[in-house]
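pinging the channel bc i need a second pair of eyes. not urgent but kinda urgent?? the chain im working w is below, pasted from the shared doc
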Amino acid sequence: MSKALKNSTIEKKIFVLDTSVILYDHIAFKNFQEHDVAIPIQVLEELDNMKNGNETRNAEARSFIRLMDGASGDQIINQWIPFSGKKGGRFKVVMDYKPDGVDAEEVFGKGKFDHRILNAALSLKQEFPEKRVVLVSKDICLRLKAKSLELHAEDYETGKIKNVDELYTGKALLANVPDEVFSLLKAEGSVDATGLEIEEVQANHFCILKGKRKVATTYYNAKMRRLFLVASRTIFNISPRNDEQAFAIDALLNPDIKLVTIQGKAGTGKTLLAIASALEQRKDYRQIYVTRPIVALSNKDIGFLPGDVKSKIDPYMAPIWDNLRFIKEQYNHDAKMQGKIDEFVSTEKIVITPLAYIRGRTLSKIFFIVDEAQNLTPHEIKTIISRAGEDTKIVFTGDIYQIDTPYLDAESNGLSYLIEHAKDHPLYAHITLDKGERSELANLANDLL
């Protein structure tokens, strides 16, 4: 064997994928270029246990099982199978082997699939000493266990956002703006943006203009290269309390913007503004859907909870009902409007339901709100948007720093992914809300604790 060929062989890796990676991205095993990919048999067993149900993880499990079946054809999958169209990359299922040396089950305890997955990776390391065997997992603890056994381990990087602290905010501050710009905005409602130091954005953007004495809130249309004055608009008796909320309302009411994301910490008004905007435009849409992913305690399905379906899901949907109740309270002196809001619910003009319950439906002429979107994977976000039919508007709200799903973080969640990748699209607008408006006490918790 030539030296060059030998080096090429040594540089190749074997990536061992655990269940968390598959549930995050069911096509993950095709994303390792020329390297080999191994799937421990325990992963297939876990996916088999998860394949039934309406949750996203159930759909991911089914999709991966079908993908593996199609990729293997009539071949034996405990032998290396080349990826079609790939140069050198192969995949296989690793059986339940125990390594000759250190045994993860002896070290960490028996009865857990995770420890048997570690043994599968250790067996490959023993079988292929010339290759670098790497365990890929979204589970931080499993990666730490692997490293303690002198096994290379890393996170699944596809879809992760780098420098999340510099994530697109949808807004900019322009200082030292000439007085004549403010005069034109007041007189005509818009002004040519040529000559102003607006960063190179290709889509919808919001700008706060500051002069010597004057301040204006504006919306920048990249196609027209013009700034339009953003007025403070009241929607369903909800008025913006700061400039960012005014920007959010402007994007939510703009019929040319079909996809909106609102990111911000608790109490900034994300969900409230989205629901109020939907109700304000109720005549333009067939229905209003307000959903959120259910992230159960201890990662158990809601089937473990007592009661019927409604009593199981109501605790998870309570924050959305709280926002609708707050809107209703703005009409305490208008019994007719309060009755109309109740009628919206009873006639299903507005539907509040877990995200899993609308899986597979085509969303035509729907104002569709997804709350707590930071608990979704990039693939889930893509799937939701792909369901949009004609005249549908989709709004994602969430806080990328408050994630309840164990295998997601600020860099890998679907909301961060969408903000980063959609920011230059003309159908999209984003705004980050910084100022909490729930109460001074809530702000104290966010700012100081």
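so The CA atoms of residues 209 and 216 lie 5 Å apart. and The chain is about 35% helix and 20% strand. — does that match what u expected or am i reading it wrong
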